[in-house]
Design a protein that fits this description.
It comes from Kineococcus rhizosphaerae. The protein is an alpha/beta fold and 224 residues long. The chain has helices at 11-22, 37-42, 57-63, 82-103, 130-147, 184-199, 217-223, and strands at residues 2-6, 26-31, 46-49, 69-72, 107-111, 153-159, 161-163, 170-174, 181-183, 207-212, 215-216. The strands form 2 sheets. A 9-stranded mixed sheet has the order 3-2-1-4-5-6-10-8-11, with helices on both faces.
């Protein structure tokens, strides 16, 4: 299988890429910074330098040729303002979907966030700062665009609060998960399993929340 990961140098993306490469998949990571290519190679991932904030659909589609699935793991990151939440977390995710459809990629997994329902219908959640509210709005807008498309199998994964602790191998994965915490390693394992389902046509529930739990990841993915 050929998997292309947008935001290939992120923490989840590197774990995902290494796991997929270890089992024999061809993995390509899209990154903005050429200096990150060595880290991708160390994980067994091929790197392509491509800035999703400025690239065209044709540019991105060229990098997706032959892919079985794409994973959007990019993000504006800490310290970025509300404007970049929109240009990366929303518009870059949409650009990747446009490119995936142009390139004939069948499956797309969007890593989103728990909490996006708090801003649905223009709501402003109390106790949440302006930038994080913008982040939730951007993620929700990306979800809504992707899930409305025909001809693209989409899975949206909303992880709970992320930690860098070692993976537990057990999670809770269901549409109604809306709180908790989860390790990035367990997120990567769940993403890989969900990608497998997208590629083989056994699409999981369109939107799934993920938190720590007591169900082995492979079993949780099979039930999703």
């Amino acid at each position: 299988m050929r998997i292309v990961i947008a935001g290939g140098h992120g923490k989840i993306a590197l774990l995902l890429g290494a796991a997929a490469a270890d089992r024999g998949d061809e993995v390509v990571g899209l990154v903005r910074n050429e200096a990150h290519l060595d880290d991708l190679r160390a994980a067994g991932v091929s790197g392509v330098v491509l800035d999703l904030e400025s690239a065209s659909v044709a540019d991105v589609a060229g990098a997706l040729t032959g892919a079985d699935a794409v994973v959007f793991a990019a993000g504006a990151g800490p310290g970025s303002g509300a404007e970049r939440k929109d240009t990366v977390d929303h518009r870059a995710a949409v650009l990747l979907a446009d490119a995936a459809q142009r390139a004939g990629v069948p499956g797309y997994l969007l890593i989103s966030s728990i909490g996006v329902d708090r801003v649905r219908d223009g709501a402003t959640p109390s106790g949440v700062d302006e930038v994080f509210t913008a982040y939730l709005r951007a993620k929700l807008a990306a979800e809504e665009d992707l899930l409305a498309r025909d001809g693209l199998r989409v899975s949206v994964l909303r992880p709970a609060s992320l930690t860098d602790d070692p993976g537990t191998g057990s999670v809770r994965l269901a549409p109604d998960v809306d709180s908790g915490r989860v390790t990035r390693a367990d997120v990567a394992a769940a993403v890989l399993g969900l990608v497998d389902r997208l590629v083989d046509g056994r699409a999981p529930a369109p939107v799934l929340g993920l938190a720590e739990g007591d169900v082995p990841v492979a079993e949780a993915v099979a039930r999703a």
